[in-house]
Amino acid sequence: MTCFIALLFLVSSAWAASPQIVLSSHTLQPGQTLRVEVDGLSPDAKLRVLFNKKSYPCYPVGPNAQRALIGVPLGTPPQSLPLALKSADPDASSSPLAYTAVSISSRNYPTENINFSQAKTSLAKNEHRESALIHRKAAILRKEQSWEGTFLPPVSGPSIAPFGLHRTRNGTQNAGFHKGMDFRSPKGAPVLASNAGIVELAAPLKAHGKTILLNHGQGVMTIYLHMSSLRVKPGQKVTKGQIIGKVGSTGLSTAPHVHWQVFVHGVPVDPKQWMETEF
What is the DSSP string of the chain? Predict the structure, then answer.
């Protein structure tokens, strides 16, 4: 259970006398998700959170409370970053209304090498184009929250590669960070939707394999790679635990498994945190 830390700030009386900013943590590692909740607001308040040179929307979580979710990118160096609260009302002052600070701690990135056959290696030339497609789809913002509670793993098999590895291919090629978790499961085993959402992408890609991207609302997405078959179509609503495909080894994969990834406003974050914490 995440411990939330409350801080008090004085801001414009047009919103409230002393709204309360509640952070899930004051210290995060790269890859973790930060929850920012502002309580004690007037019902018509419009807020955004400014953090690490980006602006994040706030969504109502009650009649007088709003919440923003922020993902800290892998590779972010240790530092203290300001977090500011700002009105999203175009007629309001452009000056931030409240400040606090969030510390980014260091993270260890273990290394892993994967050897691919020549045929599999040749698929890598499609990665950039496919990644651009996925990131365009991952930027689609749906205001309604579809998810409930913690997220389910996509299969019942064990995790075989954690989030945050630094990978190489065939001993020499830098493959960057592993931005999700890999789960081993037999070919043909069912792949489950980790939570309720809407299908933004369901397509047979070359490097990523047969891929599904689910939009859970408010900037939260999950993606499922390397499947052998797809059971859903773009625009379809799915429920938590629904079968959306079957395990495979399509694309850049050496054995049957599912690569499962969580995005928060386009930033890949640690899925394990979403399996253990209700955001």
Answer: -PPPEEEE----TTT-SS-EEEES-SEE-TT-EEEEEEES--TT--EEEEETTEEEE-EEEETTEEEEEEEPPTTPPSEEEEEEEEE--TTS-SS-SEEEEEEEPP----EEEE---HHHHGGGGGHHHHHHHHHHHHT----S----SSPPPSSSSPEEE-TT-EEEETTTEEEEE--SEEEE--TT-EEE-SS-EEEEEEEE-SSS-EEEEEEEETTEEEEEEEESEE---TT-EE-TT-EEEE-B--SS-SSSEEEEEEEETTEEE-HHHHHH---
Query: Tens digits of per-residue pLDDT, 99-114?
Result: 889 999 999 999 999 9
Please give the model's pTM, rounded to 2 decimal places: 0.92
Write out pLDDT tens, residues 194-226: 999 999 999 999 999 999 999 999 999 999 999
